[in-house]
Design a protein that fits this description.
The protein is of the alpha/beta class and 126 residues long. It is found in: Cell membrane.
Length: 126
């Protein structure tokens, strides 16, 4: 009597395909560089998905910079903006910046003429 041989599944081929797909997505995916090397963004959920245009970067020690140039205060930053850009001002604070200092800078921006101050943060994962 003849023994029945079971057909073997081509698992090696399937593993190769999955591995090639993994390599493809690793190569095809790109990460955007951070605004500054020492900046860690604040985590939030349900953030408006608009990308931040030119924004005022506030470092953990309270130093401010705009397009890589240091800004001594909020009024100086506002004076560099065109009249149309002063209606909606975006700021990118460091995660370790004290909240009281962030609020004070926001108030300074409002006093200097900003109608709306938007804080740009990192989207929370879940």
């Amino acid at each position: 009597m003849r023994a029945l041989r079971s057909k073997r599944e081509p698992t090696i081929a399937l593993i190769n395909i999955v591995f090639l797909m993994l390599v493809f997505f690793m190569v095809a995916g790109t990460l955007s560089p951070p605004l500054d090397r020492d900046l860690s963004l604040v985590n939030t959920r349900d953030l408006d998905a608009r990308p931040p245009p030119d924004a005022l970067v506030i470092h953990s020690d309270g130093q401010m910079s705009f397009r890589g140039v240091g800004m001594p205060d909020a009024a100086t930053y506002m004076s560099t903006l065109e009249q149309d850009a002063q209606t909606e001002v975006r700021i990118v604070p460091d995660q370790t910046l004290p909240a009281a200092q962030l609020v004070a800078i926001g108030q300074d921006l409002r006093r200097a003429g900003a109608r709306k101050v938007i804080i740009v943060t990192e989207r929370g994962l879940q």
